[in-house]
Amino acid sequence: MAAVTAAAGARYDAIGRTYGRTRREDPHVAAQVHAALGDARTIVNVGAGSGSYEPADRAVVAVEPSVQMIRQRAGRPAPVVRGVAEALPFADGSFDLALAVLTAHHWTDAAAGLGELARVAARQVVLYFEPLRNRDFWAIEYFPAALDLPSEIDPPGERLLAEHLDLHEVRPVLVPRDCLDGFGVAFWARPEAYLDPDVQSGMSWLAMLPADDLARGTAALRADLASGAWDRRHGHLRTEDVYDGGYRLALAG
Ligand SMILES: C[S@@+](CC[C@H](N)C(=O)[O-])C[C@H]1O[C@@H](n2cnc3c(N)ncnc32)[C@H](O)[C@@H]1O
């Protein structure tokens, strides 16, 4: 399993170097995640990364394969175990709740990972994106090669979650216009941000693109912003408050 962990960690060891520059908790998203935790006292946060959305008032254990991401947890009180979702190193029923935030689309075997969440915890809370909704996002027009990335081809959505968890509620997580966490769709109303190399390297769907696809899309977006073409097509978004980018919070168990 050490080899599997190393392979899973390698991706974020490479692309996670600048994670902390643009990725941090958004308070609106955090409020929804924390509300979903209910009265759970013991939580395992799987694919924990730098620790965003970990509640400070519960006993949390983090699981994360990337050393680079673990280094960026400075100041987080939760102990970290280096490992992967597909083989959690805990006995059955060790936790009240398993949390997985924006990570399941990176798992090599999402079905096995979901099975592990259900094995080690009585309840599960998973923040994920619904693939079909996500494909409607305007930025895909500029970076269509992203749809061919392993993490985006068939990411786990409600159908897979329902197959492997006792799923009882799916809540939409609308993205605020000023979202603080620079995840994939965060800048839906601030298109200029998608030209910024730090923003690009903080979201895996752009960070993992072949360099020429990234350069071509960036140039096309820059030109459309300069000519006003982007605003003619999507400018109405600039004044909207929230956007449904397909993010969903699954409550199970
Ligand atoms: C987009 S980051 C999300 C991190 C954190 N949950 C957050 O919301 O900021 C995805 C994380 O999943 C981790 N990951 C990748 N493959 C994994 C696997 N098989 N099991 C567990 N975590 C994995 C990555 O190393 C990375 O830290």
Account of the protein in words:
The chain has 253 residues and is α/β, with parallel strands linked by helices. The chain has a single domain (2-252), classed as Rossmann fold (3-Layer(aba) Sandwich), CATH 3.40.50. The chain has helices spanning 2-15, 19-22, 27-37, 67-71, 110-120, 131-135, 150-153, 158-164, 197-201, 204-207, 211-227, 229-234, and strands at residues 42-46, 59-63, 80-81, 95-101, 121-129, 167-172, 175-176, 242-243, 247-252. The longest helix has 17 residues, at 211-227. The model has no long low-confidence stretch (mean pLDDT 94). S-adenosylmethionine binds next to helix 1.
| Fraction of residues in helix | 25-40%
CATH class: Alpha Beta
Give the distinct bound molecules.
Answer: S-adenosylmethionine
CATH topology: Rossmann fold
| Main β-sheet, spatial strand arrangement | 3-2-1-4-5-9-6
| Low confidence ranges | none
The CATH superfamily title: Vaccinia Virus protein VP39
Biggest β-sheet: count, sense, barrel? Answer: 7 strands, mixed
Q: Span from first to last CA?
A: 27 Å
Number of helices: 12
Q: What is the total number of structural domains?
A: 1
Number of strands: 9
Average pLDDT metric: 94
Could you give the topology of this structure?
Blueprint: H1 2-15, H2 19-22, H3 27-37, E1 42-46, E2 59-63, H4 67-71, E3 80-81, E4 95-101, H5 110-120, E5 121-129, H6 131-135, H7 150-153, H8 158-164, E6 167-172, E7 175-176, H9 197-201, H10 204-207, H11 211-227, H12 229-234, E8 242-243, E9 247-252
This protein binds S-adenosylmethionine.
